[in-house]
What we know:
The structure is a single chain. Helix 6 (95-153) packs across helix 8 (173-183). The longest helix has 59 residues, at 95-153. It is built from 11 helices and no strands. The chain has one domain (37-248). The protein has 249 residues and is mainly α. Mean pLDDT is 76; it is low at 1-13. It has helices spanning 3-36, 42-47, 49-58, 60-76, 82-93, 95-153, 159-166, 173-183, 185-197, 201-207, 215-248.
Amino acid sequence: MSSKPIANQNQAKPVWLKLAIFAILAIIVGVVYWQFGSQLTLENLAKQEASLREYQAQHPVLVFGIAFAIYVAVTGMSLPGAAALSLTYAWYFGFTEAFILVSFASTLGATVAFLLSRYLFRDAIMNRFGNRLANFNESLEREGPFYLFTLRLIPAVPFFVVNAVMGLTPLKTWKYWWISQIGMLPGTAVYMYAGSSVPDLGTLADKGVNAAFSPAQMTQIFVAFVLLGTFPLIARWGIKLFKKNSQDQ
C-alpha cells in the first residue's frame, strides 16, 4: 500500500519542478524588464549615443559579448523588443558584424525558447491531447524541417510563436537549430541593412525601419518574403504531383 503514494510522488515531482522553474523564470524576466526595460529603449539609448560609441572603441570584444548575451536572453525568454534591438545593433556595429552577431544570437535564443517550451509544456500537452496529436506528430516527424524552414522565411509568423509551438513537437533540437539558422538569414539581412543605413540613433528611434525604407518599400519587402516563404510549399506540391502522375502512368 505504501508503494502507490511513492509512485504518485515520483510522478508529481517533475510537475512541481517545472512549475517552480517556470515561476522563477517569470519572476526573473519581470524583475529584469522592470529594472532595465526603460533603459534599453531606442529613445534612451539615443541620448547616450556618444558614450556608447566611445565605450565600444575602448572595449570592442566586451561590448560584442554583452550584446550577444542580451540578444540571446531577449529572444530566449520571448521578451518584446527583438526587432528594435536588431536595428540598434545594425546601427551600432555596422552591417557585417551585426549580421553575424544577430544571426547566431537569434538562433541560439530561439533554441533556448524551443527547449524551454519542450521541457515546461510538452508533457502536459501530450498527456491532455496525445491521441489527437499522434497523427500530427507523425506527419511533423517527416515534414517538420520543411515546414519550419518555410515559417522562418515568412515574417508574418511571430518569432516567439514558432519557437513555442515547435518545442511541443518531436523535432530534434539540432535540426531545429540549423534550419532556423538558415531560414532566418534573409530576414536578418533586411533588418541589418535597415539599421546600418540610418545616420544616427535618434533618427532610428523616431522612424524605426522607415528611417531606411519607405512604407512602399516595406510593403514590397513583405510581399517578397511571403512569396519566398510560399515558394518551397508550391515546389514541394509540384514535386509530389509530378511523382504521382509518373506512378499512374
